[in-house]
Design a protein that fits this description.
The complex is a heterodimer of chains A (118) and B (271). Chain A is built from 4 helices and no strands. In chain A, 81% of the residues lie in helices and 0% in strands. The termini of chain A are far apart. Chain B has a 5-stranded mixed sheet with strand order 1-2-5-3-4. In chain B, helix 1 runs antiparallel to helix 3 and helix 1 packs parallel to helix 4. Chain B starts with a helix and ends in an 11-residue tail after the last strand. The chains are: A mainly alpha (118), B alpha+beta (271).
Chain lengths: 118, 271
């Protein structure tokens, strides 16, 4: 009985350690960096919650890479990519809304002028 | 004794690991539920399906992956991870749908705006045309049609002081109408002709007639009519409209005449 316990422990450790065999997620990191850049390019700023998360997770992914914790690096980078894509999409949605408001404003002005002319 | 404490420590360690795994599983199950309800929502939304089908598919794929990982071989962390990705894809699908719908709305608004711009332009044009027509009627009422020279408008003797070339303020209304008429008819040009009665010497009369015509021309130019559209001529006491024998006849002969060209800018011949 007392011999079996360490054996179980060793099996558990092996199972946990198996995760460390993931390949380095270089392509995913590249994708994530691109997504973050694109979000910034369309105008997402640091007050975007999603972009803040993306940046934090990208940083964590790079730290994990340095530690050779490739699985964690991949997961962080995957989440960061979607965080950045959401940040980008939200900026574009807001821009579309602003354009609609502008157009509505112009239409209102035109209607007013037309009423004055009639 | 030593071995026993070691195995006890190991047991505590395993227990702690199991406990934390339990807590992680609870969190991952809640994340999975949230992701699942988000996917259901976007799948039920016809707008989302139409505008962001790829995002919906990815949200569904990630969710399926998270669900598969809840079986014995996945960790709670893996489940949470794919639930998170699924949730994000659903959110992105919603944003992309909003963008597409906004774009549709925007093109409708742009059409609406163009329609209104056209209507406004037409209404302005109409009002200008009406104004132009009204002015033309006014000018025609002030003018007469001479068989040789076309439309001729006469500014009478009362608009100048005796011997003076300067237009009196009482001419302002007529002159302003003239300017507006020329602005609305940009191709028409005018010849301004000065005349006097036969009193006094010929040279003086010629100079005075020319100075009065020039004074009218200067006023038009000052009010914005291009000087290329205004010719000036002085005829002295020639071409009387009435006999110079009576005071009434002489008053009629002291005048400035404005000869209008036709719509194409062609003036009648000079006298």
């Amino acid at each position: 009985m007392s011999i079996q316990l360490p054996a179980i422990g060793a099996v558990l450790l092996l199972a946990l350690g198996g995760c460390a065999n993931d390949p380095a997620p270089l392509e995913q990191l590249r994708l994530t960096e691109q997504a973050v850049e694109q979000a910034k390019a369309v105008g997402a700023s640091d007050d975007s919650e999603a972009l803040k998360r993306a940046n934090a997770k990208l940083l964590q992914a790079r730290l994990d890479m340095a530690d050779k914790s490739y699985k964690s690096a991949r997961m962080q980078a995957e989440q960061a990519e979607l965080d950045a894509r959401l940040a980008e999409a939200r900026v574009l949605t807001a821009k579309g809304q602003a354009q609609i408001e502008l157009q509505n404003e112009r239409i209102k002005r035109l209607r007013k002028q037309l009423e004055q002319d009639l | 004794m030593k071995c026993e404490s070691l195995s006890r420590a190991l047991l505590v360690l395993i227990g702690a690991a199991l406990l934390s795994a339990c807590a992680g599983r609870e969190a991952s199950e809640s994340a999975l539920r949230d992701a699942s309800s988000s996917v259901e929502k976007v799948k039920e939304d016809a707008d989302v399906l139409r505008n962001a089908p790829k995002d919906v598919v990815r949200a569904g794929e990630s969710l399926a992956r998270a669900e598969r990982l809840t079986s014995y071989w996945g960790t709670a962390g893996d489940v949470s991870h794919y639930a998170y990705l699924s949730q994000r894809y659903s959110q992105i699908a919603v944003e992309h749908t909003r963008q597409a719908l906004d774009q549709e709305r925007l093109s409708k608004l742009q059409l609406e705006r163009q329609r209104l711009q056209l209507a406004l332009r037409e209404s302005k044009l109409q009002s200008v045309q009406q104004q132009g027509k009204w002015l033309e009627e006014q000018i025609v009422a002030l003018a007469s049609v001479d068989s040789d020279r076309g439309l001729v408008m006469t500014l009478g003797d009362v608009l100048f002081d005796t011997g003076e070339a300067q237009l009196k303020p009482s001419a302002n209304r007529t002159v302003l109408k003239l300017v507006q008429f020329l602005q609305l008819n940009p191709r028409r040009i005018v010849r301004i002709e000065g005349y006097t009665d036969s009193t006094g010497d010929k040279a003086h009369n010629l100079a005075l007639s020319k100075a009065r015509a020039q004074s009218v021309a200067d006023t038009l130019i000052d009010l914005g009519i291009d000087d290329s559209r205004v010719r000036v001529e002085g005829y002295g006491d020639e071409f009387p409209v009435e006999a110079n024998a009576s005071e009434r006849g002489r008053a009629k002969n002291r005048r400035v005449e404005i000869v209008f060209s036709d719509n194409q800018g062609v003036l009648g011949a000079e006298r």
